[in-house]
Amino acid sequence: MGNFGSFIEKETLHILRDRRTMLVVLLIPVVLMTLFGFAISTEINNIDVAVVAPHRTESVRQAVERMASNPYCTFKGYIPSDEIDRVLRRGEAAAVAVFAADYDRIAAMPAPAEPAVQLIFDASNTNTAMSGAAYLQSILTGASTQASPVEMRLLYNPQMRSAYNFVPGIMGMIFILICALMTSVSIVREKENGTMEVLLVSPVRPMRIVLAKLVPYFMLSCINLATILLLAAYALDVPLSGSAGAIIAVSLLYLVLALALGLLISTIAEKQIVALIISAMLLMMPIVMLSGMLFPVENMPAVLQAISCIVPARWYIEAIRKLMIEGLPFAAVWREVLILLAMTVVFIVVSVKKFNDKLE
Amino acid sequence: MNETVISVRNLTKCFGNFRAVDGITFDVGRGEIFGFLGANGAGKTTAMRMLCGLSCPTSGSGTVAGFDVLREGERIKRHIGYMSQRFSLYDDLTVLENIRLYAGIYGLSHRQTLRRTAELFARLDFRKERSQLVGALPLGYKQKLAFSVATLHSPEIVFLDEPTGGVDPLTRRQFWELIYETAAAGTTVFVTTHYMDEAEYCSRVSVMVDGQIRALDTPAALKRRFCAESMDEVFRLLAREAKRGD
């Protein structure tokens, strides 16, 4: 159909003319990926550790050596026990390992009745302290001669890389941001400028006007999808262990869902600013807070867990985690895909109905 | 009046209990410039939407360009042009791109588009403006361009909804010359306006009050009937009777 083609041409021109917005849209994924990948990191890369050891016996020295040689720890030297508080306060060390006076004896016991080493942490940053403590503990337990009754293995993300966690999250956020926000604003802009009126008087079917708007944004999002996946694979070393086909298929479904959401917003909002606020507040907040992107859904109170069920990003992020990080096959995410599919259908049906009602 | 292109009988549109348009009846002939006047809230816009096939009448009947307003809204749309008070071209597209878009919407062939574009540029005396962004054009140029684009597909009727809002008198004059040319070429012009001097330019004028047409005649005949000096006076005499507010 000729007029559909000229509409897509028009929409593409709108995007191309607005260079600044286009640039922002194309750069958002790169910026976010870099930020989360390198700057905002929840990993512990370097713990400064001071050691209090009343008797520096052979086994104590071995344990300290192991700690010092570990790339994630920096050995800050031996300190007397009355210095502990001062060292921590001044930030000269983030942790102090206090070896018991009779370390050799306790460590040699088959089932130690008292602690051989005490770890004192500066817990003003809870995250660092928690994971640092766990890390240090594992180094030191390895030092004891007998095997620990608990064996720990970290599957899927053995190095505890936080990149593995946030890449799906960023994907869940960016596509909503671009598809829903951009399309809703661009449709509402036509209403505000009065050009929509002219288009409605023309013989073009109203739905076609709107569909033509979705196409270029869909393409733009596909470019973003490619950028993100390439960055994830080559810059952040996320394994993409599942089938790339499944990841892309689920993502495309999510793009359609986000576009439908944008369409829905555009039928509610009369002004660009309203569309912007709805997209930013009503979509972004739940995505960041409730989707499991930053905070695990399982830790939320039951009410919030229930609310998180209606956040599409939650299901998408869950599916992408399974596919990308755990390397599960497509069959493992059928539940998430079904939910996303159902949501898409609901959004499309409701927005088409609202759109047609508005015309009358 | 040789041939009617708009003919409506008792056209009514209700929103709940509110009769926005209350049984209007009139005919418009080919090549006429039909002035459609009325205060804000008198029902002009609602009536015009029905004639454009945008909104379905609650009762009554009518044809526009030979098509039924109740059942053939989509076909009416193919045979009319529309230009609104709010500027209706895209600022971020060039003059040519805007024209191409509308040519595409109305399904003009490539050759037709080229020919009509050339005609349009000759008539408006556009040269370097062709590849300029529409947003950079002066308002008067934009308005004339919007009108020319609305008639690009040679519609039988062109609907103008307060087309000269916010334009200086000289440009309005030039704009009305365009309207005359178009009407002389056989296109019917259906125009709403707030400027009563423009009402004088129309072949016939209708005045809507409270959803009904209170008067319909040539400007000269209306002035005679109401013993008025100008259309402005006629309009004020009629609008005074209005019961519903803005």
Unreliable residue stretches of chain B: none
Q: How many H/I helices of chain A?
A: 14
* Largest interface (CB < 8 Å): A-B, 24 and 32 residues
Derived from helix and strand composition plus strand pairing, the structural class of chain A reads alpha/beta
Secondary-structure class of chain B: alpha/beta
Number of domains of chain A: 2
* Strand percentage of chain B: 25-35%
Overall shape of chain B: globular
| CATH homologous superfamily title of the largest domain in chain B | P-loop containing nucleotide triphosphate hydrolases
What series of H and E elements makes up the topology of chain B?
EEEHEEHEHHHEHEHEEHH
Please state the oligomeric state of the protein chains shown: heterodimer
Topology-level CATH name of the largest domain in chain B:
Rossmann fold
Secondary-structure arrangement, i.e. CATH architecture of the largest domain in chain B? 3-Layer(aba) Sandwich
Looking at this protein, list some descriptive labels.
heterodimer, A: alpha/beta, 4-stranded mixed sheet, 14 helices, 66% helix, B: alpha/beta, Rossmann fold, 6-stranded mixed sheet, 4-stranded antiparallel sheet, 37% helix
Write the layout of secondary structure elements.
The complex is a heterodimer of chains A (360) and B (246).
Chain A: H1 2-17, H2 19-39, E1 47-52, H3 58-69, E2 73-78, H4 84-90, E3 95-99, H5 103-108, E4 117-121, H6 126-143, H7 163-193, H8 195-201, H9 206-235, H10 244-268, H11 272-290, H12 302-308, H13 312-325, H14 334-359
Parallel strand pairs in A: 1-2, 1-3
Antiparallel strand pairs in A: 3-4
Helix pairs in contact in A: 1-9, 2-7, 2-9, 3-6, 7-9, 7-10, 7-11, 7-13, 9-10, 10-13, 10-14, 13-14
Chain B: E1 4-15, E2 18-29, E3 33-38, H1 44-51, E4 59-64, E5 67-68, H2 73-78, E6 80-84, H3 95-105, H4 110-124, H5 139-150, E7 157-161, H6 169-184, E8 188-192, H7 196-201, E9 204-209, E10 212-217, H8 219-225, H9 231-239
Parallel strand pairs in B: 3-8, 3-9, 6-7, 7-8
Antiparallel strand pairs in B: 1-2, 1-4, 4-5, 9-10
Helix pairs in contact in B: 5-6
